[in-house]
Amino acid sequence: MQKQELAYQDTKFNLDTYWVDPIADFGTPNKRPLAIICPGGAFKFLTDREAQPIAFNFNSLGMHAVVLDYQLVDDDHSVYPLALQELATTLNWLKSQEEIQHIDLSKVVLVGFSAGSHVVADFNSIVLDPDQKDKVFPDELTVTPAANVLCYPVIDMTIGWPKDEDWAMKIAPDIYYWQAQEHLTKHGKPTFIWQTVTDATVPVMNSILYAQKMDMLGIPYEMHLFGSGAHGLALGNYVTQNPGNEANLNAYDTKWWELCVNWLKLQEIIPNR
């Protein structure tokens, strides 16, 4: 893992980069897909459970991975719109790394967990729409994601999370950013969604609303709603278990990763062989 510092205007932020080294035996290195991962943490912190272990899983598919340390709520900043600007800056930075790291820029996937999914969903809805983009990111977007993966996502901040409206205002003083599904257009990218119907933190209706809007717009999607399991499962196995926390384990829900891999093959992000 290597740290990379970037900046949007006068605000600096960090990436953790997980590059897949070229195979030395090959005369010409393979260009590899890449996942940009936005961990959750209620916009208060970024959980490591949804960072390096997820990056390693993507590496195992032959994909590069980058974990974005996006803007959280602090004394000086709200999350929005800065988190979206940081994600756009990260995408543009990939252009400079295309030849150095052998990246297939046509196969970049945005991956969000919980609060991090709200960043990804808002980006898919707002920044990818030419009529809305300049409100957030007036510069040219030189790299466009091909697909999204949303894991137990926050989509609409008015239907159960956060429970405190004051916290929602700290996340985004402009309520324009609160409801990702409301701004989704035909420019949104194919999306994989999974959640549990027993999620007691983020209501499952978040996933349903976003899928419903994609369905109305004809955007390809795949959604899996599991019948049991707590919020914040990550991989749902011992790799991402906080020691002693049985709620981090669910043998049924670990299937989400296999289903996601199948979907990435369907989207031709990774080869179907």
Automatic annotation (TrEMBL):
<dbReference type="InterPro" id="IPR029058">
    <property type="entry name" value="AB_hydrolase_fold"/>
</dbReference>
<dbReference type="InterPro" id="IPR050300">
    <property type="entry name" value="GDXG_lipolytic_enzyme"/>
</dbReference>
<dbReference type="InterPro" id="IPR049492">
    <property type="entry name" value="BD-FAE-like_dom"/>
</dbReference>
<dbReference type="GO" id="GO:0016787">
    <property type="term" value="F:hydrolase activity"/>
</dbReference>
<dbReference type="Pfam" id="PF20434">
    <property type="entry name" value="BD-FAE"/>
</dbReference>
<protein>
    <submittedName>
        <fullName>Lipase</fullName>
    </submittedName>
</protein>
<keyword id="KW-0378">Hydrolase</keyword>
<feature type="domain" description="BD-FAE-like">
    <location>
        <begin position="30"/>
        <end position="213"/>
    </location>
</feature>
